[in-house]
């Protein structure tokens, strides 16, 4: 039987990524939309998966430190799944695909931080693994970079993703409001 279940991925919404030296675009709005989507997924008994970068040994995002912790503003329930990743791509040497298979997941709704790093890498990886993907266009964030501001980075990647050639799966980029109406 094919994996058909939907899951919400919340990538790297960790305290270490949200600080005064690296302010993220629309943090409050992104957190609000993630919390609202998570509530809908929980109501339908669909997996809500928080992905946390585990930088153990690197000095950044060391497991069980403040920088590794999820933002306090996120609604995290005991029924949610917390999963560590060790590179930008959540699938890289983490056993994540096995976990999704165990859950029967074939469709991913993707949110999180940082658009051009971990969100992008995980989307690309999921695409070549034939998942159906819905990127929440206003559900991911990043910071201004030396050559491009955060708003343009997000706009650029939303454009890239919606024009990608899918494999056996599909990829769509939709705003929160459109997703919740059709869910």
TrEMBL record:
<dbReference type="InterPro" id="IPR050272">
    <property type="entry name" value="Isochorismatase-like_hydrls"/>
</dbReference>
<dbReference type="InterPro" id="IPR000868">
    <property type="entry name" value="Isochorismatase-like_dom"/>
</dbReference>
<dbReference type="InterPro" id="IPR036380">
    <property type="entry name" value="Isochorismatase-like_sf"/>
</dbReference>
<feature type="domain" description="Isochorismatase-like">
    <location>
        <begin position="7"/>
        <end position="146"/>
    </location>
</feature>
<dbReference type="Pfam" id="PF00857">
    <property type="entry name" value="Isochorismatase"/>
</dbReference>
<keyword id="KW-0378">Hydrolase</keyword>
<protein>
    <submittedName>
        <fullName>Isochorismatase family protein</fullName>
    </submittedName>
</protein>
């Amino acid at each position: 039987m094919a994996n058909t279940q939907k899951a919400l991925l919340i990538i790297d919404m960790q305290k270490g990524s949200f600080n005064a030296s690296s302010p993220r675009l629309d943090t409050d709005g992104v957190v609000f939309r993630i919390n609202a989507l998570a509530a809908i997924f929980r109501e339908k008994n669909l997996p809500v998966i928080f992905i946390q970068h585990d930088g153990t040994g690197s000095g950044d995002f060391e497991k069980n430190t403040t920088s590794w912790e999820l933002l306090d503003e996120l609604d995290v329930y005991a029924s949610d799944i917390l999963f560590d990743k060790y590179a930008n791509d959540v699938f890289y040497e983490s056993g994540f695909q096995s976990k999704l298979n165990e859950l029967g997941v074939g469709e991913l709704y993707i949110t999180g931080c940082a658009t051009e790093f971990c969100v992008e890498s995980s989307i690309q990886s999921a695409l070549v693994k034939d998942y159906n993907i819905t990127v929440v266009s206003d559900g991911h964030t990043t910071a201004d970079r030396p050559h491009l501001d955060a708003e343009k980075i997000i706009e650029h990647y939303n454009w890239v993703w919606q024009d990608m050639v899918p494999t056996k799966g599909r990829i769509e980029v939709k705003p929160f409001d459109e997703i919740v109406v059709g869910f």
